[in-house]
Amino acid sequence: MILGSQAAPSLRAYTVKVKPWVAYSLARVGIFAVIFAALLYSGIYPWLSAIIAAVISFCASYLFFGKLRDAVARDIVVRRAKPATNADTEAEDL
């Protein structure tokens, strides 16, 4: 067998959709981390950098992540609409 003559394994793309609350949380934490690092690098006190980064990341997420925030709200509504128990377990308990 010649080295490299084997067929390359097929690579499949990751197609599972990320839950909206995960994407929203990662986006907010990412914005906070970038702003916090930039403020620390500029020489601002760490506690003041954290406060400023929190305020700016809150404002940015409120202004720019409306679709993600709505998706999180819809996901919460869907989860709350599911019954906590099913009819079979309730019937068995009687």
Helix-strand blueprint:
Elements: H1 20-41, H2 46-64, H3 66-81, H4 87-93
Structural write-up:
With about 90 residues, the chain is mainly α. It has a domain at about 20-80. About 70% of the residues lie in helices and about 0% in strands. The protein is flat and about 65 Å long.
Query: Radius of gyration from the CA trace?
Result: 23 Å
Order of helices and strands: HHHH
Q: How many beta-strand runs?
A: 0
Largest sheet: none
- Which spans have pLDDT < 50 for at least 5 consecutive residues? none
* Alpha carbon gap, first and last residue: 69 Å
Mean pLDDT across residues? 85
In terms of structural class, how would the helical and strand content be classed?
mainly alpha
**Helix content estimate:** 55-70%
Strand content: under 5%
H/I helix tally:
4
Q: What gross morphology would you assign?
A: flat
What attributes characterize this protein structure?
single chain; 94 residues; mainly alpha; 68% helix; flat
Précis, in short:
The chain is an all-alpha fold. It has helices spanning 20-41, 46-64, 66-81, 87-93.
